[in-house]
Amino acid sequence: MGKNLYQKVFESHIVAKLPSGQYQLFIGTHLCHEVTSPQAFAMLREEGLRVKYPERTFATVDHIIPTTADARKRPLADPISEEMLSHIEKNTKDFGVRFFGPETGEQGVIHIVGPEEGVTQPGMTVACGDSHTATHGAFGAVAFGIGTSQVADVLATQTLAMSPLKTRRINFTGKLKPGVTAKDVALAYIAKLGVNGGVGYAYEFAGPVIEAMDMEGRMTVCNMAIEGGARVGYCNPDEKTFAFLRGKPYAPKADKWDEAVAYWKSVATDADAVFDDEVEINCDELEPMVTWGITPAQAIPLNGNMPRIDEFQGSEQKVIREAYEYMGWEEGGKMIGTPIDIAFIGSCTNGRLPDLIAAAEILKGNKVSPKVKLWVVPGSMKIKKEAESLGLDKIFKEAGAEWREAGCSLCLAMNPDKLQGRQISASSSNRNFKGRQGSPTGRTILMSPIMVAAAAIEGKVTDVRKYIK
Ligand SMILES: CC(C)[C@H](C(=O)O)[C@@H](O)C(=O)O
Ligand code: SF4
Q1: 24 within 8 A of 288, measured Cβ to Cβ
Q2: 303 phi, psi to nearest 5 deg
Q3: 433 alpha carbon to ligand 1 midpoint, in Å?
Q4: What stretches in the chain show pLDDT beneath 50?
Q5: Which CATH class is domain 164-238+262-280?
Q6: For the domain bounded by 288-464, which CATH number is listed?
Q7: Which of 60, 107, 109, 135 to mutate to test the pocket of ligand 2 (most atoms within 8 A of CB)?
Q8: Ligand 1: residues whose CB is within 6 Å?
Q9: Closest ligand 2 atom to the C-alpha of 130?
Q10: Which residues bind [4Fe-4S] cluster (predicted)?
């Protein structure tokens, strides 16, 4: 019987079976950011340990870093942010870990930096103290988020105690219509399977829709696996994967390339592999999706209606009621036409170059509504540079948007970028939880970056398809 990618990669990384029944799993690449690593490095210091494989550990600063050039001057105005940044600088220096800091021109959101540096590769195990680590699964890696004490485990031993997950393949069949993007695919599977549908599972994203997607789109789909409860989400590696990695700083060099590709091909899911569960989602009729509530699963097609509270029962009804109470919409209504205050294009979900190119195409020749602020925040310094070489910054600025420096920005608002009061944000990020964007009463509507661009033009949730040239 054949195996799927998850099973092959998990099995090939087992170091030992533990008395607990778990496995000690080798971690190929360990990614760190400033929020979840300081205590882990402190634990190492306390125990007098070193980083076991510093060459397999990579770090950047993303969450706390301000996104204007002025505010990035040191020391940072916020003392806690300055402390976090100083810690990761010192820790990476003392322990011999590569730090993609602002001075190197390689800083960015960790899930964007890993692939762009080529440290994320097929067939690897990738761990990071961050819940959106499945993003790296787009390359055919088994990638998952870990907690701070596990960050210390990986630093000290390059291994983790893990139990294998069950596997579910989601086959996306059909073809996406113009204006429908990877983000809509992500919101659609989460809406269908629920926020807890993937608990205990690794999701394999497969089928013609995934095959037709570029690597950036696959990263968007994998990025949101955790929003559907799946700690691991991945796509099988193919020629697009290899083409993306070729020539990246940490990708295998010419003399090792063919050997690497042969290994990468070997980890792909076998034709006769068996999954614990399989689901099909036909995408022929998929519309641009928008969230209406306070979880990413509370998403509807743009022209659809929000649910009625009495369609649900028990705890499900409670969640729906809570969402309406927080968001303040009328039950059963439509999201299209909802006025917005802030529009945000960025994050590890949708802050990559093709996202910015597509958003710029919508904005070109149009103006951002005077009632709205549009922030465009590239996911990394490299993306910012590439975008500028294509003249995208000019298009954004001419339309009236702010073109900012790389970081997590308004996705989580751990930096100065925050909503105020009850403001409503149209956001290309991945979480619409209560208070997520920095104001305890602020409201977030998740959508694709092109939908955000269209909403910024009209000052309300609208159909991007009328702007597609
Ligand atoms: C701060 C970090 C630990 C957190 C995560 O784990 O995902 C953040 O990146 C998020 O998106 O909420
Ligand atoms: S961009 Fe958002 S989701 Fe991604 S790592 Fe940063 S805070 Fe988390």
Answers
A1: no
A2: -95, 5
A3: 12
A4: none
A5: alpha beta
A6: 3.30.499.10
A7: 109
A8: 35-36, 63, 130-132, 145, 412
A9: 5
A10: 348, 408, 411
Q: Do 155 and 148 form a contact (C-beta atoms < 8 A)?
A: no
Mutate which of 60, 130, 405, 431 for ligand 2 pocket (most atoms within 8 A of beta carbon):
130
User: What token pair was written down for 367?
Assistant: 């103006």
Residue 434, Cβ neighbours under 10 Å: how many?
16
DSSP helix, strand, coil percent of the chain (3-state; round to 5): 40, 20, 40
Q: Is 348 annotated for ligand binding?
A: yes
In CATH terms, 3-160 corresponds, of 3.20.110.10, 3.30.499.10, 3.30.70.270, 3.40.50.2300, to 3.30.499.10
CA distances for 374 relative to 151, 296, 332, 362, 419, angstroms: 36, 22, 29, 13, 12
Q: 306: CA distance to ligand 1 center in Å?
A: 28
CA 67, CA 69: separation in Å to the nearest integer? 7
Number of CB atoms found within 10 A of residue 178's CB? 8
Q: Which contiguous run of DSSP H or E holds residue 208? A: helix 208-212
Cα gap 231→235, rounded to integer Å: 14
